[in-house]
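Many introductory courses stop at the sequence. We go one step further.
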Amino acid sequence: MGASVSTTDFSARDGFEWWAQMIDEAVMQVSITSPYADGFQATTTAIDLGDTDLATFAFSPLSARRDAAQIRRGDPEDYFLFLVHGSSIGMEQCRNNSLLRVGDLAVFDSSHPLSSEFRDEGRLPEVSLLRLPRARIPLPQDRMDRLLSTALPSRTGSGALLASYLNGLRAQARGCDATELRRLGGVASDLVAAFLSAAGDSPAPLPAETRKQVLRARIRAFVDHNLSDPELGPAVIAAHHHISVRLLHLLFREEPETVGAMIRRLRLERSRADLADPRLGRGGIGEIAGRWGFRHQADFSRAFRRAYGMAPSDYRRESRDPAGTPKGPARTVSAAGPSYGEKVRASR
């Protein structure tokens, strides 16, 4: 689920002007210049995650600045987490200067002046940008200011987990409905809080309830990345996180579903998305079931019928319109204000 737009919908010069306006409205007000303004290329895909949003931007090389006057005119008071996919990025904020390369993570703050250079290295700059309301990151402001515009560890530990989770979210969001996306957005926020708390020389302590939320987020991320393993269950999850099975169940006691129910729901949702995907052609029902951790096709078919009221084969047939494209889940509109996707669509 997400909104996608591109400069191919505009003339060469109008594309750059549209892009600059869209960034002002969907992210924050900045001044943008580019040597490629006359033939500017850009695409944006935005995913509404409830309190947070994840957008992927690919665009011609450019420079972006945000100054004090722009901050005074409008400040969303958000943090933004960068995950770099394309050419390198030079960034400066709060006297911190970094050169970010593919796979790097970094954070910037809408409330401080910012300077960034998206470099020309023979391929388009591309980034994923996770917006985080400041209240979702329970760390002292001075601690956060020291982390701004620095290349944060993304190849090991919680940084690697966070980067992998965001990449997985980009790939799988189309198969999720609005309720699940809000839940996944909460997981992303908790992972970022844990990651930033551990960054630097002296990890900042998190409140006890936040530590529980972070552990639940790590568990959900582990489950999401291991759904294909038929052995995945409470014992495997508890052992991986060095806790007892009893503690695992206690952590999820006040959640809307048990650990086992979460695994079953996610497997069914991934299978349902594959059944509706015309790119997967006529792959067998058993093949799809096995891909998501079901040992036996009969067990999968029974679980699918209980969850969705029809057999998997019937769902695959009925989920496509006459042109052969998936109908996709219905979208629930959040009442919490416009998301990236809504702002992107409105800017067209």
